[in-house]
Amino acid sequence: MSATDIFGNGRVALVTGAARGIGLGVSAWLIAEGWQVVLADIDRERGPKVAQALGERAGFVALDVANEAQVAAAVAEVIGQYGRLDAVVSNAAISRPHNTPLEGLGLNEWNRSLAVNLTGPMLLAKHSAPYLRAHNGCIVNIASTRAHQSEPNSEAYAASKGGLLSLTHALASSLGPDIRVNAISPGWIDARDLRAREAEPLTELDHDQHLVGRVGTVEDVAAAVSWLIGESAGFVTGQELVIDGGMACKMIYLD
User: Fold this and answer.
1) Mind telling me the catalytic residues?
2) Domains observed in the chain
3) Phi–psi pair at 222, nearest 5 degrees
4) Cα(221)–Cα(216) distance, rounded to whole angstroms?
5) N or C: which end of the chain has fewer CB within 10 A?
6) Comparing C-alpha atoms, which of 18, 141, 144, 157 is closest to residue 74?
7) What is the C-alpha to C-alpha distance for residues 90 and 83, in angstroms, rounded to an integer?
């Protein structure tokens, strides 16, 4: 029996930070399209349960993306189990956009944010590149509109996401033409689970301030990932795709 018979379209993706939120949404979307998806997450309790719920085309590997030995081992595990790797979605992040005020920002907190949000994607690219190259694979880095716009007390998060955009075009230059590398910068995405959304629903104002009339969903990001790693985006590399409902181009005046 061929890999395609077993695994749908025969392609294998590794998605980090996949136990919840955007990473989980991306994983579910790709599985529905026939991908074999390995969910990677630091949460060793929730991760396997999520993968099991997604069915036979989902696997799980425990991973701290800031640990190079773990990254190398995770990629080796994917190759050992499935024999190939076609796409890496670097989504894992310390995702609080608001952190400690600058005067109280500890160096450990700063370093950990950059290690996970920026060094992690570099390590994933480094160790997956030989296998992605074999199949003209793709990397998608999940950045943020915070790379361009900030609110107070977001230095670590904004700096890491800005660096991720630069890393994206650097990788596209280094790894092309065999590997395409792009970034997605989500705006406000309601990535909470159903229970949290029901307990604290978004307001009309939350939705109406977006030019499209609603807050984003994980499916909005997942659809974009699917396009970027697909053949129809074969002429796209080194780019940032902003998915924010139009907020970045909106003029805002305070009354």
Assistant:
1) 157
2) 3-249 (3.40.50.720)
3) -60, -40
4) 8
5) C
6) 18
7) 20
Which residue reads 């992040």 in tokens?
Answer: 93
**What is the SS3 assignment for 176?**
coil
Do residues 138 and 86 touch, judged by C-beta distance below 8 A?
yes
Q: Where are the alpha helices (DSSP H) in 101-193?
A: 107-114, 120-133, 155-175
Query: So what's the pLDDT on residue 96?
Result: 74
- What is the distance between the alpha carbons of residues 18 and 191, in angstroms, rounded to a whole number? 12
Q: In the numeric block, which tokens belong to residue 164?
A: 């991720």
* pLDDT, averaged across the chain: 94
Q: Tokens 């920002």 sit at which residue?
A: 105
CA 185, 187, 189 angle in degrees (round to 5)?
115
Q: What six digits make up the tokens of 157?
A: 């998060």
Q: What pLDDT sits at residue 7? A: 46
Global pTM? 0.93
Task: Give pLDDT tens digits for 197-255.
Answer: 888 899 999 999 999 999 999 999 999 999 999 999 999 999 999 999 999 998 888 76
**Structure tokens given for 12:** 């294998």
At 191, phi and psi to the nearest 5? -95, 10
* Stretch (H or E) spanning 199: helix 194-199
- Rounded Cα distance between 189 and 202, Å, is 11
